[in-house]
């Protein structure tokens, strides 16, 4: 099950501004904790308790004006195929343009929920001007101002009505998603792992979702690969669209337990790799990094160590993620890769008993308590793991509001040292008791 919202529309109508507003709250928190630079085009958000991903198609249009139209048409078609909800943004200042009409024509045929957002309605004077958008034949519209936020709450209320509660289905087998930028070697890795589909045991067609999990047994491990069919069957048209690869990554990450991020060793760890990494982290999925095409790298002393150090700098403070140097071509360390993915899967399911957690963590906190604030001392009384699919811990204390991020990170690092959550995002809350 996924809730993927795609924002479409012609350039300059305010898609990015709306995107920022839709993902802001959640991203702001994530940024503060991890010190990550925010990715512009996709993010994770929630509203009224529903979680969803938002993709801004706008940022992907490159090139001159005359190829814009074709690009936008492709993006709208992909959004129609792949997203769960589409927000079509139009601009009240400009009124209906021929491009809007084109997009509306594509959207009129679609069965998925479509929300037309008439943007730049910054004041009620402009409400009346929005009426002309009825002519696009998409029915009701929402008047919003992405800049000052008015109307966006109503839009979100209506959108989440169409969303499902994402409940992580308990499966017996680990679900792995192989993600990475185009040409990193994802298909080659999958082929090296499973050998041209010869080892398919069963195809489990998702009943409530439009992707396919395929069950494999390799090297003695049972696992599902999420949507390998989708990765391999893609058409030529889709291949060169960055938006397409992002869409697939967003989708398969939502459906997996562990994201296997494939990098191209000859290119390093770059922007798009980082974006996918943090997307998996925000989705609280297990992560392993495979540095592929290692056969092509000139090995001198410390090449591997330096490469690894560079990646760890980029992913700080979530640094205990397994990094494995592989070659899909020569099949070097393919076994190690899958073995590690299974380990991360187990780490993510790990349950620490309340007594063990309190015995170890309260002792550590006693020796190094949170800094006092305005002469008041924070006392942590007890802690427990929450019954969530991914490790989350709550520490009860008298003054939780005084516990700041650096201290939370300290606690997280201690927990990682003691309990081994390699490759797994963990969340720590301080609550009042
Ligand atoms: N008055 C007003 N201006 C807005 C509003 N939302 C966006 N804008 C302005 O419209 C311009 C375009 O906004 P963007 O968010 O970059 O538009 P976009 O659709 O993402 O554009 P592309 O990235 O080119 O596809 C910017 O100058 C924004 O400040 C709004 O609600 N009211
Ligand atoms: N030398 C070397 N080449 C590799 C390796 N893995 C993949 N390649 C080559 O890299 C190119 C891209 O590999 P693919 O497996 O198609 O990459 P992909 O990530 O699936 O690419 P997309 O389908 O575009 O997303 C192909 O030419 C592969 O032969 C490797 O370990 N070593």
From TrEMBL:
Gene3D superfamilies documented for this protein: 3.30.300.20, P-loop containing nucleotide triphosphate hydrolases
User: Domain EngA-type G spans what residues?
Assistant: 3-167, 174-349
Q: Might you name a Gene Ontology BP term for this protein?
A: ribosome biogenesis
Listed name of the protein: GTPase Der
Return the PROSITE patterns for the record: G_ENGA
- UniProt keyword annotations, A-Z: GTP-binding, Nucleotide-binding, Repeat, Ribosome biogenesis
Q: What does this protein do?
A: GTPase that plays an essential role in the late steps of ribosome biogenesis.
GO molecular function annotation: GTP binding; ribosome binding
Residues that coordinate or bind GTP 1: 9-16, 56-60, 119-122
Relate the assembly described in the record: Associates with the 50S ribosomal subunit.
């Amino acid at each position: 099950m996924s809730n993927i919202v795609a924002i479409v529309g012609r350039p300059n109508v305010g898609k990015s501004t709306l995107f920022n507003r839709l993902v802001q709250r959640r991203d702001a928190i994530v940024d503060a904790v991890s010190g990550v630079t925010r990715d512009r085009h996709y993010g994770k958000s929630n509203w009224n308790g529903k979680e969803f991903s938002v993709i801004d198609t706008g940022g992907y249009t490159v090139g001159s004006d005359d190829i814009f139209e074709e690009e936008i048409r492709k993006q709208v078609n992909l959004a129609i195929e792949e997203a769960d909800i589409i927000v079509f943004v139009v601009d009240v200042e400009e009124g209906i343009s021929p491009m809007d009409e084109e997009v509306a024509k594509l959207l009129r045929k679609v069965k998925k929920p479509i929300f037309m957002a008439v943007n730049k309605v910054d004041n009620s004077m402009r409400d009346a001007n929005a009426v002309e958008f009825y002519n696009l034949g998409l029915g009701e519209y929402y008047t919003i101002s992405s800049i000052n936020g008015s109307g966006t709450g109503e839009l979100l209320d209506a959108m989440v009505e169409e969303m499902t509660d994402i409940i992580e289905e308990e499966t017996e087998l680990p679900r792995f998603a192989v993600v990475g930028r185009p040409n990193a070697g994802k298909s080659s890795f999958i082929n090296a792992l499973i050998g041209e589909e010869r080892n398919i045991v069963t195809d489990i067609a998702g009943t409530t979702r439009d992707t396919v999990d395929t069950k494999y047994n390799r090297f003695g491990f049972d696992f599902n690969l999420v949507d390998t069919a989708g990765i391999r069957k893609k058409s030529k048209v889709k291949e060169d669209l960055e938006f397409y690869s992002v869409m697939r990554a967003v989708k398969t990450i939502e459906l997996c337990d562990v994201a296997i991020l494939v990098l191209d060793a000859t290119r390093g760890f770059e922007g798009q790799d980082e974006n996918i990494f943090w997307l998996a982290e925000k989705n609280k999925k297990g992560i392993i990094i495979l540095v592929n095409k290692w056969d092509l790298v000139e090995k001198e002393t410390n090449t591997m160590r330096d490469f690894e150090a560079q990646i760890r700098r980029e992913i700080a403070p979530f640094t205990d993620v397994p990094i494995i140097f592989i070659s899909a071509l020569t099949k070097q360390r393919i076994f190690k890769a899958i073995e590690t993915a299974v380990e991360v899967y187990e780490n993510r399911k790990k349950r620490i008993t309340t007594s063990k957690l309190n015995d170890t963590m309260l002792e550590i906190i006693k020796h190094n308590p949170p800094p006092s604030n305005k002469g008041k001392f924070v006392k942590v009384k007890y802690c427990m793991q929450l019954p969530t699919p991914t490790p989350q811990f709550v520490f009860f204390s008298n003054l939780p509001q005084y516990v700041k991020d650096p201290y939370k990170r300290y606690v997280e690092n201690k927990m990682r040292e003691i309990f081994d959550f390699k490759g797994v995002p963990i969340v720590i809350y301080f609550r009042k008791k």
